[in-house]
Design brief:
658 residues; mainly alpha; 7 strands
Length: 658
Amino acid sequence: MPRAFQPEIGRDSVAQVDVDNGPTRAFLQAVAGCSPYLAGLIGKEAAWLPGALDNPDAALRDAVTAPETGDVAAALRQAKRRVALLSALADLGGVWTLEQVTGALTRLADMACQVALTAGIDAQRKRGKLPEFDPGVFVLAMGKMGADELNYSSDIDLICLFDETRHDPGDYPAIRSALVRAVKHMCATLSENTADGYVFRTDLRLRPDPSVTPVVMAAGAAERYYESLGRTWERAAYIKARVAAGDIAAGEAFLSELKPFVWRKHLDFAAVQDAHDMRLAIRAHKGTGGPITLPGHNMKLGRGGIREIEFFTLTRLFTAGGRYRCRRVRGTVDGLAALAARDWITPTLADRLTDHYRFARTIEHRLQMVQDAQTHTLPTRDEGFARLAAMMDVEVDALKTTLRSRLSEVHAETEGFFAPARAAAPPAQIDAAMQARWRSYPALRSARGAALFDRIEPMLMERLSAAARPAEALAAFDGFLAGLPAGVQLFSLFDANPALVDLLVDIVATSPALAAYLSRNAQVLDAVLGGQFFAPLPPADELQAEARAAMHGLDYEASLDAIRVWAKEQHFRIGVHLLRNLTDAPQGAEQYAALAGACVAALVPVVTAQFARRHGQPPGRGPVVLGMGSLGAGRLTPSSDLDLIVVYDADGIEMSDG
């Protein structure tokens, strides 16, 4: 329960509220005595407040219900006042969690966008500018609104698009012009500051190329932009994208089409460097990159702040979400939990960062509650810290100690992921001519590939120099590098996961054949980070189930691509297990055979179904595939061919139905 920072203001503000309960009145007085903004809201909503306090959940449901008639702008501003006041009281009183508070504010934003957009479209229909049928316009909530994480004074970041295929091509220019006016009407309804206040400040600048494009674009044009020109920050932004208003089905279809742009098929560690560059650019632009000094420290963008936890979580989700769909979550807390569930971070680290994130967001909310200001900055004077401490019901010195400790820990936990410490180049015997030759290899011809290699080269040299036979290991690495067609993704992977360099050195120093396989199939290293790579290979029936799961829900060509990737990863896994003596040679031969059998067994029904689409259902009892030779004996080598015989029993039926 907060302490009143200015008790007399608190008493005056609550005097007109009909509340008999002593502790409740004291609580309201304390809140009003800490926040001039909330004191004003208590006065404006004095008649509504007692009933809302009796049942805050019902009061929230009523407040976020769309108004049916009347002055839409005034109704939305009343809803904003009530939700802001109710959320603040439930927050300060410990009735709602952080997620409930941000969820309530987000529900209000969703309702407000829908009501304001509908009003804008109706206005254009009355002028005869839009048809009576649904024009297919939809609003994407980005950032904190998309993740259900709005704070008390958030802008809302929106992208507005429409499905142009619903309209005759000749009508397209007029339809787009009318929708532009409708969206501008929506933004004005939400953001104009009237005598009743405002609803939400809106920002439409996250759309493609905002300096030259209209505020509402055709979905097809947006999709073409992202496929051809989309940048890493735009990919990252769409992780949190959510359809908030308008034609929900059209919006969901657009996001589904955009998934290949956002979520790459393989682990995308090149995004880590991009995210690090974004962080540095934001720090430089906002001037928030200095040391942690509490007065004036930015709780969002400063060291150890909210953005560092968000970037840490978002980048890891971004890196792996294409491969592991279970990680495609929008919220920061949910994201940390998803990462811990797949062992990408430890549960302890996930719990610590979650706790720090909730604390930092709580401080941010308290700062914004004071004057309804869009601020994330700690006070610069003692009076401001005293007010903040009163809202938190702690002493000033204790608050400052906690802030320093938490900010420092967050910075220490997250900074190493983006900018890991570099090993110094060792004084090893290095073939200078060989090193000079590396720069001509395909993997290092691009400027970015060369720059990433420069970052990991000292680490590589250190590991290679420590090999049992350094000269042979270096020569083998030269062969590996020469066969590598591209390097950006692989070098980024090594940069973010130095333990993989040890595995690479093991391979090139011990098994030239496996090193050659790796240079042709570098993406198999994705599997090493999956958590079960070094566990014993599952039995044959489980391998078959995994093979079928790899193709589940995909079309024919995508199924073939998926099982190729899966098979290469398992092939590499068996080889590494042999290299590391996790299995012996007879076991390895059995595992190679089991892998081949799993692929054949999983592919037979897929190929049969594809054949049936073209030629009709196969009659009779169907085919059986016989494995001959080494496959039949269950003993394959890494480079074995498969000798197969397919026998088919038509059961006396001479023709298919196709």
